[in-house]
Amino acid sequence: MINQPLKENSDLGVVNPHFLLFLVSLIWGFNFSVIKAGIMAFGPLSFTFIRFVLSSFFMGFVLWRREDNFWIEKKDLPYFIWLALLGFGIYQPLWSWGLKLTLASHSAVILSLSPLVVYLVVFFYREEKVGAKNLLGVVLGFLGVLLLARPGDTSHAGDIFWGDLLTLGAAICWGLYGYFSKKMLQKYSPLKTSTWSVFLGVFFLFPVCYFELTTVQWSHFNGLVIFSLLYGSILASLVAYILWLNGVQKIGASRTSAYQYLIQVIGVVAAWIIYQDPVGWNLLSGMALISLGLWLTQAKA
Predict the structure, then answer these.
(1) Rounded to an integer, what distance in angstroms lies between the CA atom of residue 29 and that of residue 159?
(2) Measured distance CA(155)–CA(161) in Å, rounded
(3) From CA 289, how far away is CA 156, in angstroms rounded?
(4) Which of these, 181, 168, 166, lies nearest to 244 by C-alpha position?
(5) pTM (2 decimals)?
(6) In Å, how far are 107, 130, 238 from 29, measured between CA atoms?
(7) Could you report the per-residue pLDDT of 51-71, keeping only the tens digit for each?
(8) CA angle (231 as vertex; 229, 268 as ends), nearest 5
(9) How many helices (H) and strands (E) does the chain have?
(10) In this structure, are residues 181 and 193 in contact, taking their beta carbons and an 8 Å threshold?
(11) pLDDT, tens digit, 9 for 90 and up, residues 40-49
(12) Taking a C-beta distance cutoff of 8 angstroms, is the pair 167, 110 a contact?
């Protein structure tokens, strides 16, 4: 926890962090369906790279305008490189490719596992007391993913299965990013922490995305792709990342991560509305197990 509020974040401090996290849940809940449209039209890696180049520009401009000091201390650069690698260099390609292969509803549910990763790291470092029901929650959460990723009878079952596995890897990276970012949030504002993570993350994304960028069909760069890019780079990256880290700063990583409950529900509803994603027994059962697992891991030991 932070001993005193940061001056850089005083304007956000007057707004209830839970209300702000509700807005993040709406933005990220619809983000799965909106970004999937751009990814399918333009390619997962090309779209992701362009999205975060735009995000770094927008976030850098806002940081320059809002805060007296744009820069981070040199001694913190290695730690920000670590955050950039987790949150963007690894997480974003895994999530984008997973979203291309699987259903938007599956992506929303599986990504909600990230709080379990936060809990496992806390358990590993012995920061909190752990009971049997907490460990049971971790097991149930991952069982929910196995149930969700169970190959079905559709012609795209194989792609969905691999997409779910890639999304699981992304959820692990996002959980680690959320946990380790709290150290920098004790020193820097959510805006500065987000901006520098995105800015450095672009350098990790470039070599991963380069080949697809050289083969992309620029004729596919249509209005839908532009809308997806703006939604992803301004709302889902600039606005939501800042509000999410503000939540970590104000109420802690574990309580903030609990909003993954709401994100997964909104994500499933949005995918059902936009893509008519099926809401079958495996999806509902997987959601139930993951939600129960999240609840048990946050119960007192």
Answers:
(1) 22
(2) 12
(3) 24
(4) 181
(5) 0.85
(6) 10, 30, 16
(7) 999 999 999 999 999 899 999
(8) 115
(9) 15, 0
(10) yes
(11) 999 999 999 9
(12) yes
Provide the 3-class DSSP secondary structure of residue 103. Answer: coil
Contact between 167 and 95 under an 8 Å Cβ cutoff? The reply is: yes
**In this predicted model, what pLDDT tens digit does every residue of 81-108 receive, in sequence order?**
999 999 999 999 999 999 999 999 999 9
Q: What is the pLDDT of residue 231?
A: 96
| DSSP class of 218 | G
Number of neighbours of residue 38 by Cβ within 10 angstroms: 29
Closest CA to 250 of 193, 182, 297, 194: 182
Instruction: State the Rg of the chain over Cα.
Output: 19
User: What stretches in the chain show pLDDT beneath 50?
Assistant: 1-10
Alpha-carbon dihedral angle through residues 289, 118, 176, 15, given to the nearest 10 degrees: 100
**CA dist list (Å): 132 to 195, 211, 281, 299, 301:** 39, 47, 28, 11, 8
**Distance from C-alpha of 98 to C-alpha of 167, rounded to nearest angstrom:** 5
Q: What are the DSSP E strand ranges found in the chain?
A: none
Amino acid letter for position 210: Y
- For the chain, how long is the longest CA-to-CA vector? 57
Query: 3-state SS of 106-168?
Result: HHHHHHCCHHHHHHHHHHHCCCCCCCHHHHHHHHHHHHHHHHHCCCCCCCCHHHHHHHHHHHH
Tokens for 41?
């039209």
